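Postdoc handover notes: sequence design on the structure in folder B. Input tokens:
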């Protein structure tokens, strides 16, 4: 029997509690040893504790250093700051790991198996922006500062390279725009090349690709890539692009990993339009739970979970509405748990 692993559970807003219920049922069927501390955040946090990221939730993650999180609602424009961004900063979650793998064969892009590793804390997303007023136009000039550091680049690149080695990947592409942003993305490229020469040469092949060419190549022939590692803004865009190659955000998990904690989540939002109807697809959160199992060194359970998802969708043909099926979340969960229990 594996040791109990304390972990924070944030069901989240909208469809969050519905897909979390499905995920917990699957983890229980697997015998996953997580010892959950249930906490609130997002809109639920505002309603119950007057804070989208209550102190108790932060305290719990500080203690467990591990969390599974449902989607959190963030108002656009005004309102409170995204709890997701705050969590990233608070726990220095510098690496965003976004695997994209085909689950339902026969789509426009078949047999996709890619990983995007995105720098999560630096670059153009640090929020140093301002306007300059000229005459009577207060927004005459808009400015943003991007910051990439040697140390920040190195730890992210090292994370990506270690991940490639640990998962037997053959090729890593460093994606950049060092031909134009020579300093801001040049430092990332230069650090990656230096690190590869010093520590990883021969362990996998390394290539460098300019972001715009990379986007085109991913659409023309995504199979030429394996692991893509890049800075914050490019990674944000590319990780959604590769999610699109495997059927959209509903099938895509994400891991935010740092020195102080690791938080796993579905990439999609709280889907307020279908919340409470019992029709949400729990696959993205289930795949996030599989990443979490890999993270705590229980890869056999992660594989069992991924295999059971494949079997439920493809052999049993049990699919929710977004995948063209008629199953409700509870039907899918029942079929999945049966697959896990029989597997
Ligand atoms: P969304 O991902 O919630 O929904 C987009 C569309 O996809 C909707 O039609 C929705 O019904 C559908 N959808 C999403 N997940 C689904 C699932 N599992 N099964 C079936 N259908 C699904 O995006 P949005 O509407 O732009 O955002 C809603 C809220 O979620 C916003 O407040 C936003 O800030 C938040 N959000 C949170 C996260 C996060 O916590 N990681 C990510 C994105 C958006």
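Designed sequence:
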């Amino acid at each position: 029997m594996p040791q109990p692993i304390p972990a924070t559970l944030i069901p989240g807003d909208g469809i969050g509690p519905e897909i979390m219920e499905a995920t917990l049922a699957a983890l229980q069927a697997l015998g996953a040893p997580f010892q959950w501390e249930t906490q609130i955040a997002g809109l639920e946090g505002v309603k119950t504790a007057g804070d989208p990221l209550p102190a108790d939730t932060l305290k719990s993650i500080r203690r467990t250093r591990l969390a599974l999180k449902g989607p959190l609602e963030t108002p656009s424009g005004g309102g409170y700051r995204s709890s997701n961004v705050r969590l990233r900063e608070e726990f220095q979650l510098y690496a965003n790991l976004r695997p994209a793998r085909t689950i339902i064969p026969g789509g426009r892009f078949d047999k996709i198996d890619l990983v995007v590793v995105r720098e999560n804390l630096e670059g153009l997303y640090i929020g140093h922006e301002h306007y300059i007023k000229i005459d009577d136009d207060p927004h005459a000039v808009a400015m943003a500062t991007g910051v990439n550091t040697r140390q920040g680049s190195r730890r992210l690149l090292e994370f990506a390279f270690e991940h490639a080695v640990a998962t037997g990947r053959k090729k890593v592409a460093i994606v950049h725009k060092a031909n134009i942003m020579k300093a801001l993305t040049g430092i990332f490229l230069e650090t990656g090349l230096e690190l590869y020469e010093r520590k990883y040469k021969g362990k996998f092949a390394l290539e460098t690709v300019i972001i715009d060419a990379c986007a085109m190549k991913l659409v023309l022939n995504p199979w030429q890539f394996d692991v893509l590692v890049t800075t914050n803004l490019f990674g944000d865009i590319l990780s959604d692009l590769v999610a699109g190659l495997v059927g959209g955000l509903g099938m895509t998990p994400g891991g935010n990993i740092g020195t102080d904690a690791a938080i796993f989540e579905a990439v999609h939002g709280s889907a307020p339009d279908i919340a409470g109807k019992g029709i949400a697809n729990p696959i993205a959160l289930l795949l996030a739970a599989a990443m979490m199992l890999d993270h705590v060194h229980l890869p056999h359970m992660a594989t069992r979970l991924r295999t059971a998802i494949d079997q439920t969708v493809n052999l049993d043909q049990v699919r929710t509405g977004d995948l063209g099926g008629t199953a409700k979340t509870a039907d899918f969960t029942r079929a999945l748990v049966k697959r896990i229990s029989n597997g």
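Context for whoever picks this up: Residues 15, 19, 71-74, 84, 249-250, 265, 268-274, 280-281, 284, 322 surround nicotinamide-adenine-dinucleotide (CB under 6 Å). Don't rerun without checking with the PI first.
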